[in-house]
Write a structure and sequence with these properties.
Blueprint: E1 2-9, E2 12-21, E3 28-31, E4 37-42, H1 47-56, H2 58-72, E5 85-88, E6 91-100, E7 107-109, E8 112-118, H3 123-157, E9 164-167, E10 174-176, E11 182-185, H4 193-205, H5 214-223, H6 227-237
Parallel strand pairs: 2-4, 6-8, 9-11
Antiparallel strand pairs: 1-2, 3-4, 5-6, 7-8, 10-11
Helix pairs in contact: 3-4, 4-6
C-alpha cells in the first residue's frame, strides 16, 4: 500500500511518498539522489503520526535535498589537459602532461600533477589515456589512505576493520551495505584528511546503527568530537571534489 503527502518547512514544501509494510515495526525516512523523499512505515501508522515524524526530521531532509540539488547542478567536464587543476588531500595541483619513451607512473612533483604518456600517442587517444592514469592514481592513493583510517577508527569502536571498497560515486561520499561492507567515494581523497576521516568514521558508525538516529550521532561524536565541524566543511567544499 502506498500514499503521498507534503509538509511545510519554513518557505519550502517537502513532498513525500509513503510505502507501508506489515512486516515493518518502525518508521524510517530516506532521501534519494533523484530528490524523492520516501517514508517506510508500519501499516498501522496514521497520516498524523507520519507527518509529525517528518516535521521532526524536516531539517535533515531539507539538508539532504539541498545537497542533491547542489550536486545535480554540477556540469564540469574535465578535459584532462596541461594546466587543468586537481585537488589531493585539500591541496591544488596543476596537471602537466609529458611525453617519454619510458612508461612511468603518475607523480606529484612540487605543485604539478605529472602524467607521462608514450611518444607518438594519437591525439584522439590522449584524453582517455590521461583520464585512466589519473583515476588509477587516485584509486590507489585513496585505498592506501582509507585503509589506515578504517583501522584507526575501528580500534576506537573496538571492532575488527571491515571490508571496504573505493569506487566513483556521483552523489554519495560513502555508504554501508547490509553485509557490513563500506563503499567510499573515490573523490573524497581530494578533500583534506579531516573530511576523509569524517566520511570513514560516519560509515563505520553505521555498522552499529543503520539509521541516523540520536544514538548514531552520539556514537559518532564519541569517537570524533568535532564531527559537526568536519561535516559542515565537507558540505561547503564538496562541490570542488570533481574528477
Amino acid at each position: 500500500m502506498k500514499a503521498a503527502g507534503c509538509i511545510q518547512f519554513g518557505t519550502s514544501r517537502i513532498d513525500y511518498n509513503v510505502k507501508y509494510s506489515s512486516r515493518r515495526k518502525n518508521l524510517s525516512i530516506a532521501v534519494h539522489p533523484n530528490k524523492k523523499v520516501e517514508v517506510l512505515a508500519p501499516t498501522d501508522l496514521s497520516q498524523e503520526e507520519i507527518q509529525c515524524a517528518l516535521k521532526r526530521k524536516a531539517g535533515w531532509v531539507k539538508e539532504k535535498l539541498d545537497w542533491f540539488e547542489q550536486m545535480s547542478q554540477l556540469t564540469v567536464d574535465r578535459e584532462y589537459v596541461s594546466g587543468e587543476t586537481f585537488l589531493y588531500l585539500g591541496r591544488q595541483y596543476r596537471l602537466k602532461i609529458v611525453y617519454n619513451t619510458k612508461s612511468t607512473p603518475v607523480k606529484l612533483r612540487g605543485k604539478f600533477f605529472e602524467v607521462t604518456l608514450p611518444q607518438g600517442i594519437l591525439e584522439q587517444d590522449r584524453r582517455e589515456a590521461v583520464r585512466r592514469s589519473i583515476w588509477r592514481w587516485y584509486r590507489d592513493h585513496a585505498t592506501e589512505r582509507i585503509e589506515k583510517i578504517v583501522g584507526h577508527y575501528s580500534k576506537r569502536l573496538r571492532i575488527d576493520p571491515p571490508e571496504f571498497r573505493v569506487k566513483y560515486q556521483a552523489k554519495r561520499w560513502g555508504s554501508c551495505t547490509r553485509d557490513g561492507v563500506l563503499n567510499i567515494n573515490l573523490r573524497i581523497v581530494m578533500a583534506p584528511l579531516s573530511q576523509i576521516e569524517y566520511v570513514v568514521a560516519h560509515e563505520l558508525c553505521h555498522l552499529r546503527y543503520k539509521d541516523h538516529s540520536a544514538s548514531f550521532w552520539e556514537l559518532l561524536h564519541l569517537i570524533m568530537p568535532n564531527s559537526d565541524v568536519r561535516k559542515e566543511n565537507l558540505k561547503l567544499s564538496g562541490w570542488r571534489y570533481l574528477l
